[in-house]
């Protein structure tokens, strides 16, 4: 436990030093506060952003509903909804395709040329088509997020299945395992670390894409709020929104890391 706290403390040194330097520079008036507000101004704006909206009357709704009427909470929930739906669609399509391409040379030969053509195209390039096909609102955002999550999960799944140690496969064959048993009991478990790594990367990519899509296709969410603040030159709110994205991304990554460690307890190096 002590070592864990020491590790956390060591990780806080650089951010604390940078924030102190930032505060010192802004306090001395060396930069325009509209260009770079002080950390205290950003914290103040973040608190205002997270506070329940005055337009909502707590007497006319439940206390929980009033708390969740805060602009930051509503934007965060909107962004998370798009990330979850888009990621589930993208990963849900990528996982079976990746397993099929990894385990079958014929399917790999059929699909790989198309995948290699589409994979370098960034999800942002699909924005005009997504708006033409789906209009505005959640559908185009979910479509873009699905594309962003699809390829990391797909490529890691293919790599995981195709890089199973040949010793395991030969041992299973010598024991008389059928093709189905070999896939379910040998290839799939051995590919799980790759698949989970792809899932972790895919969620991170989905969160990046949702911010971009919200700046274009929807009228709420963290990305939309940052774009709105830019139009009114609210630099403190821009930075507050950026830090909100960073903290939310950190929480998602930590949760995925814990999930990976839990599911891979059997894996070499994680037994302890």
Which helices and strands, and how do they pair?
Blueprint lengths: L1 H26 L11 H12 L12 H5 L3 H33 L1 H14 L8 H8 L3 H25 L3 H9 L4 H36 L7 H10 L3 H29 L9
Describe this structure in words.
The chain has 272 residues and is mostly helical. It has two domains: 1-31; 39-263, MetI-like (MetI-like fold), CATH 1.10.3720. Helix content is 76%, strand content 0%. It is built from eleven helices and no strands. Helix 6 (127-134) packs across helix 7 (138-162), helix 7 (138-162) packs antiparallel against helix 9 and helix 9 (179-214) packs antiparallel against helix 11 (235-263). The radius of gyration is 23 Å and the shape is globular. The two termini are 15 Å apart.
Name the descriptors.
272 residues; mainly alpha; MetI-like fold; 11 helices; globular
Concise overview:
The protein has 272 residues and is mainly alpha-helical. The chain is built from eleven helices and no strands.
């Amino acid at each position: 436990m002590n070592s864990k706290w020491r590790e956390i403390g060591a990780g806080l040194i650089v951010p604390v030093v940078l924030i102190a330097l930032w505060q010192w520079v802004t306090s001395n008036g060396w930069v325009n506060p509209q260009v770079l507000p002080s950390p205290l101004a950003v914290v103040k704006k973040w608190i205002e952003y997270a506070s329940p909206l005055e337009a909502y009357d707590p007497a006319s709704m439940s206390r929980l509903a009033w708390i969740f009427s805060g602009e930051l909470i509503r934007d965060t929930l909107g962004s998370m909804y798009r990330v979850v739906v888009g990621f589930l669609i993208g990963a849900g399509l990528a996982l079976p395709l990746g397993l099929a391409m990894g385990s079958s040379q014929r399917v790999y030969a059929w699909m790989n040329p198309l995948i290699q053509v589409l994979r370098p195209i960034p999800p942002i390039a699909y924005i005009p088509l997504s708006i033409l096909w789906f209009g505005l609102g959640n559908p185009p955002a979910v479509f873009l997020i699905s594309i962003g999550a699809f390829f990391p999960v797909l490529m890691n799944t293919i790599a995981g299945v195709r890089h199973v140690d040949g010793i395991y496969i030969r041992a299973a064959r010598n024991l008389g395992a059928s093709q189905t048993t070999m896939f379910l009991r040998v290839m799939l478990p051995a590919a799980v670390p790759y698949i989970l790594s792809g899932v972790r990367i895919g969620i991170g990519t989905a969160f990046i894409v949702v911010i971009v899509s919200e700046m274009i296709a929807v009228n709420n969410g963290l990305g939309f709020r940052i774009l709105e603040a830019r139009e009114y030159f609210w630099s403190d709110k821009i930075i507050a929104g950026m830090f909100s994205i960073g903290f939310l991304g950190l929480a998602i990554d930590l949760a995925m890391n814990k999930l990976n460690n839990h599911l891979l307890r059997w894996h070499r190096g994680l037994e302890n």
